[in-house]
Specification:
The complex is a heterodimer of chains A (312) and B (311). Chain A has 312 residues and is mainly α. Chain A has 13 helices and four strands. With 311 residues, chain B is an all-alpha fold. Chain B has a domain of 217 residues. In chain B, helix 1 packs antiparallel against helix 14 and helix 3 packs parallel to helix 8. Classes of the chains: A mainly alpha (312), B mainly alpha (311).
Chain lengths: 312, 311
């Protein structure tokens, strides 16, 4: 029990400790500029991690989110280029993401195919769909729209807009999990789906909802990616599904379901981004960062496992 | 032949017929041997994935580990000049990583998806870091010979694939390791009940997967005559999809290498046929994804029908 508590609180402790150590050993690390930079870098992965947390809590996984980032970006970029306003472009992107999520959820729950397999299939197919759409615009869309531009440079009370989107979304998600029936049922399903079903929980329905949420939230990340770079290019979103799973795992969630919190996923995101930022400041070449990311995930699950194992 | 297998066979024939109609060069002996030569690495990786999935594990790391092994081989060849030493070192690195995975998963009970996801990331990252993202040439007569067309345009590498499948079949169906691979997927407690250690046998299954991954690395080196840190990207997913399309259940406990052969042929025909149509990357990915999804749906639909008729 103590081990378990420790495992829960340790994510926060590790995050704080890391920040402290990095700040003390590096001049620029704790500067306002760098902290804001960290917040910006967190936004896309943090948003994807938020969506992924819902799916993982239900015992599923969604490998298609990186492709949804491209798909949603391509939809928004195409509509903006065709002269539609920012609002319809964003709504269409969100709808596109939700649709992919619904397809994932229905294939998994109605046809009972493993989530890894279904979302692997949609990962390839949806990326193709996004690329085909993008090809109609010579595979490259420069986005110039007042709303998108404003979101790119704007800030709310000093917080960069993209980071604010992540925080608001994360807060909304955390409240949804804690104070609604949906949230309670989701934890119940992840802990013991058979028992939840016996208690009258619509297991399939709740799980489908998590995929729809994940798809729609991945579309938000797609929009953030367009906002941040001002372009839609064929390579956006590649590999982001694994970053999203990584931060969920760094946040202490179990892929078997039932354990995990959005707050901790965001802390996991902070850990990942801080480590990479620290390495960059200290001149470690970018290519080594991938190796470190993989090692970090392994270290996180190992620590979690050893803490739970400790006699308590 | 079950309904699923028959459906897959029909799907492969339809797909091949369609490509043959669209492209007169598809159904030639030259193209079919090219298809076989192109598919060697995927085919061997799929044997490892079959063992993983039957034992109710998943391995998404093999392509990354294989790429890292190839980089190790290239670097050692440049350093020592001995291809034998380099290949042994590459195989040793691969086996060590798989043994580590087996221990983490079997002894500590870590989730195989997370452990192999971490390696998917770090092994690929290491391959890129060690090479500075450049391709290292591997010049060796032995390696070149593996990829030189010999009989009917087929390379000795295809012979290696056949040998791996025969060996894999024997292990899966005629040895204790094979029996326990299925038992692990069915219910680990069955092993424990017979006084055997599930953890030890799980590590053994991972060691077997390490062997197939080392062989895949050798074949990739032969194919490219180089170690390219970005080569093999996505092959781990193709390998898993091939196993599942072949009809092996993700739930573990059952599955056959024959099914995997059919799944690999499906992916190979799809890849080769789509490439020959000279589509853009976009259409290629879209159609490939659609083809994979269609095959999965077909399989799932058949399985459901099978379940209903049993009730």
């Amino acid at each position: 029990m103590i081990g378990r508590r420790l495992a829960g609180a340790s994510v926060l402790l590790v995050t704080l400790l890391m920040f402290l150590v990095f700040a003390l050993t590096t001049d620029r690390f704790a500067s306002t500029g760098n902290v804001l930079n960290l917040a910006k870098q967190m936004s896309i992965i943090g948003v994807l991690g938020t969506g992924m947390t819902f799916v993982v809590l239900g015992g599923g996984i969604d490998l298609s989110v990186g492709s949804v980032v491209l798909f949603a970006g391509a939809i928004a970029g195409a509509l903006l280029t065709e002269g539609f306003g920012a609002a319809p472009a964003m709504l269409a992107a969100l709808a596109g993401g939700a649709l992919v999520g619904a397809a994932n959820g229905l294939l998994i729950e109605r046809l009972r195919i493993s989530p890894v397999i279904v979302t692997l299939g949609t990962m390839v197919a949806v990326r193709g769909l996004g690329l085909v759409l993008l090809q109609r615009y010579s595979s490259w869309i420069d986005v110039s729209d007042p709303v998108f531009d404003a979101l790119g440079v704007g800030s709310i009370a000093g917080v960069p807009a993209s980071a604010a989107v992540m925080l608001v979304l994360g807060l909304a998600g955390a409240l949804l999990l804690r104070f609604t029936r949906f949230g309670r049922e989701l934890y119940a399903i992840g802990t013991n789906a058979a028992a939840a079903r016996l208690c009258g929980v619509d297991v399939a329905g709740v799980r489908v909802a998590t995929y729809v949420l994940s798809g729609a939230i991945a579309a938000v990340a797609g929009l953030l990616s367009v906002v941040r770079t001002g372009v839609v290019s064929p390579s956006i979103g590649v590999g982001l599904e694994f970053s999203a799973i990584s931060v969920v795992v760094l946040g202490g969630a179990r892929l078997s379901g039932g354990v995990g919190r959005i707050e901790r996923t965001l802390l996991g995101t902070a850990i990942l981004v801080m480590v990479l930022n620290y390495l960059t400041i200290h001149g470690v070449p970018g290519t080594w960062q991938t190796t470190v990311t993989g090692g970090l995930i392994l270290a996180a699950v190992l620590t979690d496992r050893l803490l739970r194992r400790s006699p308590a | 032949m079950t309904r699923s297998q028959a459906a897959l066979a029909v799907a492969i024939l339809l797909l091949a017929g369609m490509f043959a109609a669209l492209d007169p060069d598809f159904a030639t002996l030259a193209n079919l041997s090219t298809l076989a030569n192109q598919t060697t690495v995927l085919a061997v990786l799929a044997v490892g994935s079959t063992f993983a999935i039957i034992s109710r594990n998943i391995d998404i790391a093999p392509a990354s580990v294989m790429t890292l092994a190839a980089v190790v081989v290239a670097m050692l060849l440049h350093a020592t000049g001995s291809i034998a030493a380099a290949l042994v070192a590459g195989a040793a690195v691969t086996l060590a990583i798989y043994l580590l995975h087996g221990l983490l998963i079997a002894r500590l009970g870590l989730d195989p998806l997370i452990v192999t996801l971490a390696a998917w990331i770090w092994a690929r990252g290491l391959a890129v870091s060690l090479t500075d993202a450049t391709t290292l040439p591997i010049r060796s007569a032995f390696v070149q010979a593996l990829d030189a067309p010999a009989v009917f345009g087929l390379t000795p590498a295809v012979g290696v694939v056949v040998a791996v499948y025969v060996a894999g079949w024997v292990v899966l169906n005629r040895t204790r390791l094979g029996i326990y691979t299925r038992a692990l997927g069915e219910d680990e407690r069955a092993l424990a009940a017979r006084g055997l250690s599930p953890a030890a046998w799980k590590v053994a299954v991972f060691a077997a997967m390490g062997v197939t991954t080392s062989i895949a690395a050798l074949l990739m080196i032969a194919r490219l005559a180089a170690a390219a840190p970005t080569a093999g990207f996505g092959l781990e997913l193709d390998a898993i999809v091939a196993v599942i399309i072949g009809g092996t259940s993700f739930k573990g406990g059952s599955g056959r290498l024959g099914n995997t052969v059919a799944g690999v042929v499906f992916i190979a025909v799809l890849d080769n046929g789509l490439s020959a149509l000279q589509l853009g990357d976009a259409e290629f990915e879209l159609l490939k994804g659609a083809g994979i999804l269609a095959a999965l749906l077909l399989d799932a639909a058949n399985r459901r029908r099978g379940q209903k008729s049993r009730v």
